[in-house]
Amino acid sequence: MRRKDILPRLKTDEPFDMLVIGGGATGCGVALDAASRGLKVALVEKNDFSEGTSSRSTKLLHGGVRYLEMAVKHLDKGQYHLVRDALKERGILLRLAPHLCHRLPLVTPLYKWMEVPYILAGLKLYDLLAGSAGIGNSRFLSRSKALGRFPMLHAEGLKAGVLYYDGQFNDARMSVCIALTAAQHGAVIANHVCVTDFIKEEGKVAGVRVNDSVSGESWEVRARTVINATGPFADRVRLMDDPASQPILKASSGIHILLDKRFAPPDTGLLIPKTEDGRVLFVLPWEGHALVGTTDEPAEVTENPRPSREDISYLLRHIGRYFDLHVSESDIKAAWSGLRPLIFDPKASDTANLTRDHLIEQSLSGLITIAGGKWTTYRKMALDVVDHSVRRFSLKTRSGCRTDRIYIMGGADYDPQGGVRLAEKYGLDTQVAWHLNRAYGDRAGDVARIAASGSGALLAKDFPYLEAEVLYAVRHECAEHAMDVLAHRTSLALLDTAAAAEASGRVIDLMAGELGWDLERLRKEQQMVNGRLLIAR
Predict the structure, then answer these.
(1) Which element (helix H / strand E) includes 90?
(2) Which of 427, 14, 68 is nearest to 223 (CA)?
(3) How far apart are the first and last CA of the chain?
(4) Which of 97, 149, 411, 462 has the highest count of CB atoms within 10 angstroms of its CB?
(5) Are strands 41-45 and 16-21 parallel, antiparallel or unpaired?
(6) How is the chain split into domains, by residue range?
(7) How far apart are CA 54 and CA 267, in angstroms?
(8) Residue 107 pairs with which residues in a beta bridge?
């Protein structure tokens, strides 16, 4: 599925039933839900699929232990319902995208005996809320067993631990695969297409004007319903529709750093339940590295936010407190920041207390905005907003929501042991074969065949990413820029900035051959990569 083959379908004179603005998790989920009900759907994203918040999460499919604590402490129904829904959705995603998701045990270290009953009771309640969608029972760990699970923990003063289970996933590929699954069901999906204005007839939204940032071409897209699913940018789109609209969101920045794998065992994560200022901190194994995050600070909504030195120091300081390992800025392989769109509450004193639940708003002109929520509940958010749109605009569907039964691309015939067969059949390195199996699921053989035809070289030393993945991303996954491949089709730019910079030249050359780039485009691509891979130190 090449991007150039999709764009002509977006230029039809006949109106779509639904146009979705935003190609993150929620927008892609809306497109999949609506298209699978038989609606004629288009989706436009000004950057790449999952470029913003949806590729910069903590990589956890979780209900939110902290949100449950706030729900109980403050008798907050919104937080309670969010956790309940998220735990249900966690189970659905683990089932529908088994190649991109897996169960992950996490340890909470406890340095005071009085914390043990409180934390254990909270996590038992977490298990109880999951019900039949539970993925493992929380349990007490002795001091020795906690250290056995996480041997780099600071041992002095450690009393015990509690083990519980959540889900982990590849967020960037998940979002891209949801978009591609929507396309399988008939949706027209277009990345790097920006909405510049609304088309209105008798004061009602009848479509949008768009601009293709690659070609510079502009045109109109007509639609009976327009959905604003732009995450932290939702208020900007609302202002484009109505300059008098009041904000409904407040952004919170969450930063993450990537460290060497020696900072996390390969099969267990760590939850630090309360840092010096009461925030939660995770240390997780991810793609052969240790992922540390996250912060929760009020932030301005900007493109490509960068982590501050203060936030990086905050994370390093806490790693130093909890680990018997020396850590410094020189250990950081990559760092990135994501913006969380939180429903605005003028009474909230800090973003940590803002709800992660979602809301649906319809403007006077008919623009529908879906805002708030969290990655794990994207499918529920999509279901709610499509139901709302179908009712309000009398859209004719073939069926109700089916996304709890639709496998995400690559998941339908996924073989958990497929890495063994890929290695044997195509002569692949074992690590590469297992990577392809997890990243592409039942499509891994398609990538392996491209590799076998002469594109089997690694993009970067010590990483399993192949040149074949660049070609596959262009031919089948709508990749248009080098950063689309480095950050969203593979995760190299999120794992190791230096390795991504080293691989960028080869990625650009391969894409140039596929897409016919001239010297000026080659220069711009390298400039774009250099700008994006800068790291705040």
Answers:
(1) helix 77-96
(2) 14
(3) 39
(4) 97
(5) parallel
(6) 3-54+172-248+354-393
(7) 24
(8) 163, 270
Query: How far, in Å, CA of 332 to CA of 77, rounded?
Result: 39
The CA distance from 342 to 340, in Å, is 6
- Which of 140, 124, 164, 174 has the alpha carbon at shortest distance from 24? 174
DSSP codes of every residue in 487-527: IIIS-HHHH-HHHHHHHHHHHHHHHHHHHT--HHHHHHHHH
Tell me if 473 sits within 8 A of 179, measured CB to CB: no
Task: Give yes or no for a contact between 414 and 442, defined as CB atoms under 8 angstroms apart.
Answer: yes
The CATH classification number of 3-54+172-248+354-393 equals: 3.50.50.60
Give the angle subtended at the CA of 63 by the CAs of 61 and 66, to the nearest 5°: 120
**Do 35 and 180 touch, CB atoms closer than 8 A?**
no
For residue 265, the one-letter residue type is P
Report d(CA 360, CA 389) in Å as an integer: 10
The residue type of 122 is G
Residue 399, C-beta contacts closer than 8 angstroms, at least 6 positions apart: 36, 37, 38
Residue 537: alpha-carbon gap to chain centroid? 24
Looking at the DSSP bridge assignments, the partners of residue 44 are 21, 190
Q: Which amino acid is at 486?
A: L
Nearest to 166 by CA among 204, 137, 201: 137
Say if CB 104 and CB 167 are below 8 A apart.
yes
Neighbour-count burial for 235-267, b at 16+ CB within 10 Å, e otherwise: bebbebbeeebeebbbbbbbbbbbbeeebbbee
Q: Are 165 and 480 in contact (CB under 8 A)?
A: no
